[in-house]
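subagent[fold] <- orchestrator: predict structure for attached chain, return tokens only, no commentary.
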Amino acid sequence: MKEFLLIIIILFFSTNTFANFKKIKKKTEVNKPEVVFPIPKNLNRCQTKLYVSPELNKISPLLKVKAPKGYGLDDRYDHANSRLTNFSFPCGAGNVEACGHVKNVILSWAKANAAKRTGPSDDEGKHWNDTLTVNLYIAAPWITAYSFAKQVIEISEEEDKIIKDWFKKIVKKNTHLMYGKTYNYGEQVVLLKERIIMLYLLRLLI
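subagent[fold] -> orchestrator:
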């Protein structure tokens, strides 16, 4: 039953075009654009404590995306994201120390201009993989993590600008999401992935 419902949802969203997304964006009312997900008032079921030592949870900036040429993503970024969740989960429950680590990690990546995806934006399968690597492992989850941090701790205007400029840069570089002249199969799946990512990023970058 769950599988059937998921198929229905996918088919529903995939029938829309990216032009419709622009209409949705135009009509969207956002009162607090930096709040991707509000921190809940009831934290009984939330992870509120840091269970991993920050000293043992180093998340050094990865400067250049190197996804394989064939099938697959750059797993180094998946590993970096999984480490950030050790901070972002308790930060999302209001942990001040965890939110400080979230901000520091993202700021270090922003200053290093990390997660560069170079090369042509289409025609080569490798760059499809690079695009999805950045969007799925860095842009979407880290913008959410930063949204949590912004709700909990004070961040200077200077640092906030550095971080947002970096987010906007990597999102803009990867918005095409696998569009290509020679790889047109599975177009509806591509549109669905694009819709999910762009809706997810919209509220902070609107």
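orchestrator: received. Logging for downstream: The mean pLDDT is 75. Residues 125-152 form the longest helix (28 residues).
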